[in-house]
């Protein structure tokens, strides 16, 4: 079988993956006051990884991205649960969140909320689950 | 004036989507159906743009970007499947 030469797809992917990953991070941080959040940010991140899997092959991507996605899912769920339990330690209900305004060097006055930590867990769980599903259905029988 | 123009444009976009749906159901070959799906995605993005002009909001812009990304990846996956019979390869150089 002749070797395929899809240079246009590879050139487009190298640019588009950067845009999609930036958009995923934007969606992740926009989720506090605007549409977005951990779930859809994780899905956009998984879409970028899927595009890389489609263009290149699994082995060369896994060599540069050496996480076991099942472990990533477990760590994400654990982070989400532990940030929920953290509210109990301060005599507050489960999944309680707090926020305050800080003066950061570059960003100026910024609102920092503990819900972002919970969102990190959700995003990791979504990325891990989506990639496990995609890699499972792409395996050879 | 501009609102009636926007409504007419939306009607034509709906007609275009219906034509693509006809091709999607009837299409004799699989590449016809893939083209129709991609066409529907682009038309939906255009319709969302017109609706966000109509409602004077910028809340749908990220939806448009996300739909563009997803329809792009879907079309590439279908093209890979049609070309090689396999969507994701485990090793490219074998």
UniProtKB/TrEMBL annotation, chain A:
Q: Which InterPro entries match?
A: CPA3_antiporter_subunitB, MnhB
Q: Which Pfam families match?
A: MnhB
- NCBIfam families from the xrefs? PRK12573.1
Q: What is this protein called?
A: Na(+)/H(+) antiporter subunit B
Asked whether the keyword Nucleotide-binding is assigned, the reply is: no
Its record classes its membrane topology as: Multi-pass membrane protein
| Taxonomic source organism | Cytobacillus stercorigallinarum
This protein's source sits in the domain of life called Bacteria
Work out whether the entry's keyword set contains S-adenosyl-L-methionine.
no
Q: Where are the transmembrane segments?
A: 7-30, 36-59, 71-90, 112-137
- Which stretches make up the Na+/H+ antiporter MnhB subunit-related protein domain? 8-131
Q: Where in the cell is the protein located?
A: Cell membrane
The record's family statement is: Belongs to the CPA3 antiporters (TC 2.A.63) subunit B family.
Which UniProt keywords are listed? Cell membrane, Membrane, Transmembrane, Transmembrane helix
Automatic annotation (TrEMBL), chain B:
The source's domain of life comes to: Bacteria
Keyword Transferase in record? no
Q: Which Pfam families match?
A: MrpF_PhaF (PF04066)
State which residue ranges cross the membrane. Answer: 6-25, 37-55, 61-82
Q: Describe its membrane topology.
A: Multi-pass membrane protein
Q: Tell me the InterPro entries matching this sequence.
A: MrpF/PhaF-like
Subcellular localization, as worded in the UniProt entry: Cell membrane
Q: Which UniProt keywords apply?
A: Antiport, Cell membrane, Ion transport, Membrane, Transmembrane, Transmembrane helix, Transport
What family is this protein classified in?
A: Belongs to the CPA3 antiporters (TC 2.A.63) subunit F family.
Q: What is this protein called?
A: Na(+)/H(+) antiporter subunit F1
């Amino acid at each position: 079988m002749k070797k395929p030469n899809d240079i246009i797809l590879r050139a487009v992917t190298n640019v588009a993956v950067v845009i999609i990953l930036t958009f995923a991070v934007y969606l992740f941080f926009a989720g506090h006051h605007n549409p977005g959040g951990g779930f859809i940010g994780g899905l956009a991140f998984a879409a970028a990884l899927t595009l890389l899997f489609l263009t290149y092959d699994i082995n060369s991507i896994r060599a540069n991205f050496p996480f076991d996605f099942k472990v990533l899912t477990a760590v994400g769920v654990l982070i989400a649960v532990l940030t929920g339990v953290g509210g109990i330690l301060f005599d507050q209900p489960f999944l309680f969140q707090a926020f305050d305004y800080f003066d950061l060097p570059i960003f100026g006055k910024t609102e920092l909320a503990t819900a972002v930590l919970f969102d990190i867990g959700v995003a990791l769980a979504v990325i891990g689950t989506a990639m496990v599903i995609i890699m499972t259905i792409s395996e050879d029988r | 004036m501009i609102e009636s123009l926007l409504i007419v444009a939306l009607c034509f976009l709906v007609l275009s989507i219906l034509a693509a749906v006809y091709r999607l159901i009837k299409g004799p070959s699989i590449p016809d159906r893939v083209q129709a799906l991609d066409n529907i995605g682009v038309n939906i993005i255009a319709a969302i743009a017109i609706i966000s002009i109509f409602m004077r909001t910028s809340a749908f812009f990220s939806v448009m970007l996300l739909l563009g990304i997803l329809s792009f990846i879907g079309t590439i996956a279908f093209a890979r499947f049609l070309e090689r019979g396999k969507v994701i390869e485990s090793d490219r150089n074998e």
